Amino acid sequence: MDAESIKRAYKRYAGIYDGVFGPLLASGRQAAIAHINKRGGRRILEVGVGTGVSLPAHRADNRVVGIDLSHDMLEVARGRVERERLDNVDALLEMDAGKLAFADNSFDVVVAMYVMTVVPDPQGTMAELERVCRPDGEILIVNHFAATEPGPRRTVERWLARFAPKLGWHPDFTLDNLLAGTGVTARTIATVPPFGLFSVLQIQRAAEAAG
């Protein structure tokens, strides 16, 4: 799935995303933001911020930058920030998650919710998330990971995979797909509703070695 396919898919979703996908995906967002909100005074990068549905939940003493590939989704997010006067949101930028225009070690926390099954190059995107996260910072991934054992769920996911360009995401995406070749490992992983179909993956970025 290329960038243009993604943009077309989310142009269709922009007007209905909050009403349709907002409730369906709420548990994963809430779990990720609750974890981030345990500490204040941090700089947060939200990758794939979409319509900004999660932005009001960030604690006010954290500074948030959001990026997304979809202009249409970002327009909804900008309206939300203005309407709800979210002064802790520093910027909402149209940007490719695989080519982040930030310096190394720019953020204390990098969070990507329901993004990694969408991007054309998950491993390259993971490398970028790690690059812009400071040493000892956190990377949080909220995502659906496909079943790896034979069974009805695996069969359905593989059947749906042929429709990935229209769906705007890859139903057959596994955790191994995400972590392969990245050099990062999961610190914790926990499933969330509905039906345990989504997981919150916490990655602690390694501290820099002493010079």
Automatic annotation (TrEMBL):
PANTHER family: METHYLTRANSFERASE, METHYLTRANSFERASE DOMAIN-CONTAINING PROTEIN. SUPFAM superfamilies: S-adenosyl-L-methionine-dependent methyltransferases. GO terms for molecular function: methyltransferase activity. It holds the Pfam family Methyltransf_11. Keywords: Methyltransferase, Transferase. It comes from Azospirillum oleiclasticum. One of its GO terms (biological process) is methylation. Residues 45-141 form the Methyltransferase type domain. This is Class I SAM-dependent methyltransferase.
